[in-house]
Design goal:
Blueprint lengths: L3 H12 L3 H17 L10 H17 L6 H8 L4 H17 L4
Helix pairs in contact: 1-4, 2-3, 3-5, 4-5
């Protein structure tokens, strides 16, 4: 798994997502961070998964035409379509249950 900064840079280049989607992603991530306990940890790829899911949700929220999850899986070359679908669904559930989304 590449460093998170490399993952984000490559994802931005491959997906060609516009700046507002990245800004919305950052808002989601900041609100999520505030709602999680300080000691929350995960696997090595957890940050990558959360960032990707937040970007997908932001892109779908802001744009009439957003890449399908099949393409997101290809853009990352790390996660399968099933994993991308699961990440998106789980983050949506977390955002809604936390009162964020």
């Amino acid at each position: 798994i590449p460093p998170l900064s490399t993952f984000i840079r490559e994802l931005a280049a491959r997906s060609k997502v516009h700046t507002p989607s990245f800004l919305c992603t950052m808002v989601y991530l900041d609100r999520l961070r505030q709602s999680l306990p300080e000691f929350a940890r995960g696997m090595q790829c957890t940050c990558h998964r959360i960032f990707l899911a937040a970007l997908i949700i932001a892109s779908k929220y802001l744009n009439d035409a957003s890449p399908k999850n099949t393409y997101w899986a290809r853009y990352t070359s790390l996660f399968s379509l099933a994993e991308v679908n699961l990440m998106e669904r789980q983050l949506l559930e977390l955002l809604v249950s936390s009162g964020i989304g």
